[in-house]
Write a structure and sequence with these properties.
The chain is α/β, with parallel strands linked by helices. The protein is built from 18 helices and 21 strands. It has helices spanning 3-13, 47-63, 78-86, 92-97, 106-109, 118-134, 151-169, 186-194, 213-235, 254-260, 264-267, 287-298, 341-391, 396-426, 438-455, 475-493, 526-530, 547-557, and strands at residues 23-25, 33-35, 39-44, 66-71, 101-104, 139-145, 173-180, 198-203, 206-211, 239-244, 249-252, 303-308, 314-324, 332-339, 434-437, 459-464, 470-473, 500-508, 512-519, 561-566, 572-579. Strands 5-4-6-7-3-8-9 form a 7-stranded mixed β-sheet, sandwiched between helices. A 5-stranded antiparallel β-sheet has the order 11-10-14-13-12. β1 (23-25) and β2 form a beta hairpin. α1 packs across α9 (213-235).
Length: 582
């Protein structure tokens, strides 16, 4: 085979992994060295011509620490093959005993059953190849003859050659398929040439390597495609890594190497476990951990996973794993990586801005609370004075007015208490915690919101089933949380067909009580639920987006948790837990 053909073969197999572009001695005069993945064929006219190629071919493989398999023809028995090869390899019996080579009759390989089974044969080659690598061989060298084929089996064997070709081309395998000239007409010869890199034919007493024109054009297209692919991968901003089923890195782009502080040379051939963050107890994560996650149905999905920089620091990364569908003995996976470092920094800056905005609002609220408390106190004083004046009159209507003024005075004082408590909360002082019956707080909150619910035509249902409901908390703050959740639910129900709001309680594990505020409204998207408790995020036209954020702060200050879930019957359920009093 000429130099151009050798390089064409080499270009074909460099895509497959480490050391596949390494040249190996073929042992055949007129052919020279060939790369791993070479798929050759020989057209012979006699047994002598067949042995003239196969004997030096296998002698070179045995000398190069390759596992060799020779599937003999109908006319050359196993004993004759051993006798011929032993002339070139005197210590052949020892090599056969050591399992460095197998010589099998074609019936033991191709014709185990009445019908030729291409899938079984392909699996057989794959199994022998995996075993050879596990035993420390450099690779595998094989040859199989086709003299046993009849007309009915020819099409199946052509299909088999198409299946076995990528298996050979993507592995450290060299294959030589032998065909009798007398059994091949022009059509069959063309079919054979199309599925092999080159053919060995006898001309003028010498063996010549004839390159497959169709294969050469396909290889040229493949090389051009590879150049385009490598340029695309190389210029990608996201990291791209391919690994085999053992986790060995077979390809990486510059973005992936820079993401973790390595050079491309340092990554290639290493295990992907080198980049995975250590798990609990400093246990080193294995490559299989990542690939198992992909196998459990996460192919194509983007998810965060722990990755580690060369300096030991943690790199926040979002990755997606996909399998490359190839007809080859070993599975290949491509991992697309997006560095989230800048995104996390931006999110931290946004949180800082939110915090600063809350602090500014806190200062404004403190000043506002101070200013509002003064007229509220004065209003309460005037109402009390008016009530005392009216109480001196014994008229029935005066008594009604006195009761109304007393209720108004109570509401003014309650408003003052709320402002005082909110001021203390914003100033980050500890809540005024006492023993409180949560069911009583819920009932009081419902009384405060009953008019709003009635006006919106919302049916309010209480389902307070928790046997124990005593908590340690600030009554005003907890009541304010419930009022806030109920009012939000009523707002969500204004456009709903069925307007039902259910407040329920239930005991949960570890001495906690859970409160559910469930509505039958339109519900929330997954994105909205995820950001529901962030400050200044609101779906209301005139809302500030601080009510639920403050509610979460209050619940967390009471050692509880608050979250949102979809309601089974449609709508949303806002839930929070609180520890029960001892």
């Amino acid at each position: 085979m000429n130099v151009h053909a050798a390089h064409a073969l080499k270009a074909t197999v460099t895509l497959t992994g480490a050391n596949c572009d390494q040249l190996r001695p073929s042992g055949i005069k007129g052919l020279g060295d060939v790369p791993w993945g070479a798929h050759l064929c020989q057209f012979y006219d006699s047994d002598a011509e067949l042995l003239d190629i196969l004997v030096p071919y296998f002698a070179a493989g045995l000398a190069s620490n390759e596992f060799c398999m020779w599937i003999t023809s109908e006319t050359i028995s196993r004993s004759r093959a051993i006798e011929a090869l032993q002339q070139a390899v005197p210590h052949l019996p020892r090599l056969l005993d050591e399992g460095r080579m197998q010589i099998l009759d074609f019936r033991e390989w191709y014709k185990l059953t009445d019908n030729f089974d291409s899938s079984r044969v392909c699996l057989g080659w794959s199994g022998r190849y995996e075993a050879a690598l596990a035993r420390g061989f450099e690779g595998m060298r094989i040859s199989g003859d086709t003299s046993w084929l009849n007309e009915d089996e020819w099409d199946d064997f052509v299909h088999y050659e198409d299946r076995v070709d990528p298996l050979v081309g993507s592995s450290r395998i060299i294959a030589l398929c032998t065909y009798s000239v007398s059994a091949c007409d022009t059509t069959k010869t063309c079919e054979v040439l199309s599925s092999h890199d080159c053919a060995l034919v006898r001309r003028g007493g010498h063996w010549k390597a004839i390159e497959s024109y169709g294969r050469r054009r396909a290889e040229q297209a493949l090389r051009e495609s590879e150049v385009r692919l490598r340029a695309t991968i190389g210029s990608a901003n996201d990291g791209i890594i391919t690994v085999d089923e053992s986790g060995e890195v077979t390809l990486a782009n510059p973005a992936a190497a820079a993401m973790f502080g390595y050079s491309l040379e340092e990554l290639l051939g290493e295990s992907i476990g080198l980049l995975l963050e250590r798990g609990r107890g400093s246990r080193q994560r294995r490559a299989a951990d990542l690939l198992k996650i992909a196998d459990r149905g996460y192919f194509g999905r983007r998810r965060e996973f722990g990755w580690r920089h060369k300096d030991g620091s943690m790199v926040p990364v979002e990755c997606a794993v996909s399998e490359i569908e190839l007809d080859r003995p070993r599975r290949l996976f491509v991992i697309c990586l997006q560095d989230l470092t800048e995104r996390r920094r931006a999110e931290a800056r946004i949180r800082e801005l939110h915090s600063d905005r809350l602090l500014a609002m806190g200062g404004m609220a403190t000043a506002l609370a101070h200013e509002i408390n003064q007229p509220l106190t004065a209003t309460a004083a005037y109402l009390n004075a008016a009530r005392r004046t009216i109480s001196k009159v014994s008229d029935g209507r005066a008594r009604d007015a006195e009761e109304a003024l007393e209720r108004a005075c109570g509401q003014v004082l309650r408003a003052g208490g709320i402002i005082r408590h909110m001021r203390e909360f914003i100033a980050r002082s500890e809540p005024n915690k006492t023993r409180e019956r949560l069911h009583d707080l819920i009932a009081a909150a419902c009384e405060l919101t009953s008019a709003t619910a009635s006006h919106a035509d919302v049916r309010l249902v209480l389902d307070l089933r928790a046997e124990r409901d005593t908590v340690i908390g600030d009554a005003v703050q907890l009541k304010q949380v419930i009022v806030n959740l109920v009012r939000n639910a009523i707002e969500a129900l204004r456009a709903a067909g069925v307007r039902r709001l259910t407040i329920s309680t239930a005991a949960v594990d570890a001495g906690m009580i859970r409160i559910d505020v469930a509505d039958t409204g339109p519900g929330l998207s997954e994105t909205s639920r995820a950001r529901l408790f962030e400050p200044f995020k609101t779906t209301k036209t005139h809302g500030l987006g601080v009510g639920l954020a403050l509610s979460r702060s209050i619940i967390e200050a009471h050692y509880g948790t608050i979250w949102a879930e979809p309601n089974d019957g449609g709508g949303t359920v806002l839930r929070f837990t609180l520890p029960l009093a001892e």
